[in-house]
Here is the input.
Amino acid sequence: LALCPIFENLGAAKIHELDARCRWRHYAAGCSIEDIELSAPELCFVVNGIIRVTVRWSDGKTIILRDLDRGSFVGNIKNPKTEIAGQLKCHAITNAVTARMQFQTFQSAIAHEPDLLQKFVAALTLENGKMVNRLAEFSFLRVRERVFAELIRMSRTADVTAGTAIISPP
Here is the structure.
Protein backbone atom coordinates (compact mmCIF):
# COMPACT_ATOMS: atom_id res chain seq x y z
CA LEU A 1 0.00 0.00 0.00
CA ALA A 2 3.03 2.26 0.30
CA LEU A 3 2.76 2.74 -3.49
CA CYS A 4 -0.71 4.31 -3.12
CA PRO A 5 -0.56 8.10 -2.57
CA ILE A 6 -3.27 8.19 0.11
CA PHE A 7 -1.10 5.97 2.33
CA GLU A 8 2.21 7.77 1.67
CA ASN A 9 2.36 9.62 5.01
CA LEU A 10 1.70 6.57 7.16
CA GLY A 11 4.64 5.03 8.96
CA ALA A 12 6.17 1.80 7.72
CA ALA A 13 4.78 -0.17 10.66
CA LYS A 14 1.21 1.00 10.01
CA ILE A 15 1.50 0.28 6.29
CA HIS A 16 2.87 -3.19 7.05
CA GLU A 17 -0.06 -3.80 9.43
CA LEU A 18 -2.59 -2.73 6.77
CA ASP A 19 -0.79 -4.76 4.06
CA ALA A 20 -1.22 -7.86 6.22
CA ARG A 21 -4.97 -7.24 6.50
CA CYS A 22 -5.47 -7.04 2.71
CA ARG A 23 -6.25 -9.78 0.21
CA TRP A 24 -3.71 -9.44 -2.58
CA ARG A 25 -4.47 -10.39 -6.19
CA HIS A 26 -2.38 -10.42 -9.37
CA TYR A 27 -4.10 -10.13 -12.76
CA ALA A 28 -2.69 -10.60 -16.25
CA ALA A 29 -3.46 -8.01 -18.93
CA GLY A 30 -6.87 -8.69 -20.47
CA CYS A 31 -8.03 -10.74 -17.49
CA SER A 32 -11.61 -10.26 -16.30
CA ILE A 33 -11.84 -9.37 -12.65
CA GLU A 34 -15.15 -10.93 -11.75
CA ASP A 35 -15.01 -10.57 -8.00
CA ILE A 36 -14.43 -6.82 -7.98
CA GLU A 37 -18.17 -6.17 -7.88
CA LEU A 38 -17.52 -6.07 -4.16
CA SER A 39 -20.42 -7.92 -2.61
CA ALA A 40 -18.91 -7.26 0.83
CA PRO A 41 -18.21 -3.78 2.18
CA GLU A 42 -14.60 -3.32 1.10
CA LEU A 43 -12.24 -1.20 -0.95
CA CYS A 44 -10.04 -2.44 -3.77
CA PHE A 45 -6.82 -0.44 -4.19
CA VAL A 46 -4.85 -0.68 -7.43
CA VAL A 47 -1.24 -1.04 -6.34
CA ASN A 48 0.18 -1.53 -9.82
CA GLY A 49 -1.18 -1.59 -13.37
CA ILE A 50 -4.41 -0.34 -14.92
CA ILE A 51 -7.93 -1.71 -14.40
CA ARG A 52 -10.97 -0.59 -16.40
CA VAL A 53 -14.35 -0.31 -14.64
CA THR A 54 -17.46 -0.57 -16.80
CA VAL A 55 -21.19 -0.67 -16.08
CA ARG A 56 -23.56 -2.84 -18.06
CA TRP A 57 -27.20 -1.79 -17.95
CA SER A 58 -30.20 -4.09 -18.22
CA ASP A 59 -30.79 -2.93 -21.82
CA GLY A 60 -27.36 -4.30 -22.81
CA LYS A 61 -25.57 -0.94 -23.06
CA THR A 62 -22.11 -0.73 -21.51
CA ILE A 63 -20.19 2.40 -20.59
CA ILE A 64 -16.65 2.87 -19.31
CA LEU A 65 -16.83 4.47 -15.89
CA ARG A 66 -13.12 4.96 -15.44
CA ASP A 67 -9.66 3.49 -15.68
CA LEU A 68 -8.03 2.85 -12.32
CA ASP A 69 -4.27 3.24 -12.13
CA ARG A 70 -1.79 3.08 -9.24
CA GLY A 71 -3.34 4.46 -6.08
CA SER A 72 -6.90 4.49 -7.41
CA PHE A 73 -9.60 2.56 -5.64
CA VAL A 74 -13.13 1.29 -6.09
CA GLY A 75 -15.38 -0.01 -3.39
CA ASN A 76 -18.69 -0.67 -1.80
CA ILE A 77 -19.57 0.60 1.64
CA LYS A 78 -23.12 -0.80 1.40
CA ASN A 79 -24.96 2.48 1.29
CA PRO A 80 -28.22 1.70 -0.58
CA LYS A 81 -28.53 5.34 -1.68
CA THR A 82 -25.28 5.14 -3.68
CA GLU A 83 -25.70 1.78 -5.40
CA ILE A 84 -25.41 1.76 -9.20
CA ALA A 85 -28.40 0.32 -11.07
CA GLY A 86 -26.17 -1.40 -13.64
CA GLN A 87 -23.74 -4.26 -13.14
CA LEU A 88 -20.13 -3.27 -12.46
CA LYS A 89 -17.50 -5.19 -14.42
CA CYS A 90 -13.74 -4.81 -14.38
CA HIS A 91 -10.83 -6.11 -16.38
CA ALA A 92 -7.10 -5.58 -16.30
CA ILE A 93 -5.83 -3.38 -19.13
CA THR A 94 -2.23 -4.17 -18.13
CA ASN A 95 -0.78 -6.63 -15.63
CA ALA A 96 -2.17 -5.44 -12.32
CA VAL A 97 -1.88 -5.95 -8.58
CA THR A 98 -4.74 -5.12 -6.23
CA ALA A 99 -5.14 -5.02 -2.45
CA ARG A 100 -8.66 -5.69 -1.13
CA MET A 101 -9.35 -4.25 2.31
CA GLN A 102 -12.50 -4.69 4.40
CA PHE A 103 -14.18 -1.33 4.83
CA GLN A 104 -14.23 -1.81 8.61
CA THR A 105 -10.42 -2.07 8.57
CA PHE A 106 -10.16 1.08 6.46
CA GLN A 107 -12.64 2.88 8.73
CA SER A 108 -10.49 2.06 11.75
CA ALA A 109 -7.37 3.31 9.95
CA ILE A 110 -8.92 6.65 8.99
CA ALA A 111 -10.27 7.10 12.53
CA HIS A 112 -6.70 6.98 13.86
CA GLU A 113 -4.93 8.69 10.95
CA PRO A 114 -6.39 12.14 10.14
CA ASP A 115 -3.97 12.57 7.19
CA LEU A 116 -5.29 9.36 5.63
CA LEU A 117 -8.85 10.65 5.99
CA GLN A 118 -7.90 13.96 4.34
CA LYS A 119 -6.22 12.21 1.41
CA PHE A 120 -9.17 9.82 1.01
CA VAL A 121 -11.70 12.67 0.92
CA ALA A 122 -9.48 14.65 -1.49
CA ALA A 123 -9.26 11.60 -3.80
CA LEU A 124 -13.05 11.13 -3.71
CA THR A 125 -13.61 14.83 -4.42
CA LEU A 126 -11.19 14.76 -7.36
CA GLU A 127 -12.84 11.64 -8.79
CA ASN A 128 -16.30 13.16 -8.36
CA GLY A 129 -15.18 16.21 -10.36
CA LYS A 130 -13.82 13.98 -13.13
CA MET A 131 -17.10 12.05 -13.29
CA VAL A 132 -19.14 15.28 -13.46
CA ASN A 133 -16.94 16.49 -16.34
CA ARG A 134 -17.36 13.19 -18.20
CA LEU A 135 -21.11 13.30 -17.68
CA ALA A 136 -21.23 16.86 -19.02
CA GLU A 137 -19.15 15.84 -22.06
CA PHE A 138 -21.43 12.88 -22.69
CA SER A 139 -24.52 15.07 -22.38
CA PHE A 140 -23.39 18.11 -24.37
CA LEU A 141 -20.70 17.04 -26.85
CA ARG A 142 -21.04 15.11 -30.08
CA VAL A 143 -19.08 11.86 -30.48
CA ARG A 144 -16.26 13.54 -32.43
CA GLU A 145 -15.81 16.20 -29.72
CA ARG A 146 -15.89 13.54 -26.96
CA VAL A 147 -13.14 11.60 -28.75
CA PHE A 148 -11.04 14.79 -28.94
CA ALA A 149 -11.63 15.48 -25.24
CA GLU A 150 -10.57 11.93 -24.31
CA LEU A 151 -7.44 12.12 -26.48
CA ILE A 152 -6.49 15.41 -24.85
CA ARG A 153 -7.02 13.87 -21.40
CA MET A 154 -4.92 10.84 -22.30
CA SER A 155 -2.13 12.95 -23.81
CA ARG A 156 -1.75 14.90 -20.56
CA THR A 157 -0.56 11.74 -18.81
CA ALA A 158 1.53 10.45 -21.75
CA ASP A 159 5.28 10.88 -22.10
CA VAL A 160 5.86 13.83 -24.38
CA THR A 161 9.02 13.82 -26.50
CA ALA A 162 9.77 16.45 -29.17
CA GLY A 163 6.16 17.66 -29.12
CA THR A 164 4.75 14.17 -29.72
CA ALA A 165 2.81 12.03 -27.24
CA ILE A 166 2.14 8.31 -27.56
CA ILE A 167 -1.20 7.36 -26.10
CA SER A 168 -1.27 3.79 -24.85
CA PRO A 169 -3.48 1.86 -24.43
CA PRO A 170 -5.42 3.27 -27.40
In short: The helical segments are 12-20, 103-112, 114-140, 143-157. The longest strand covers residues 42-48.
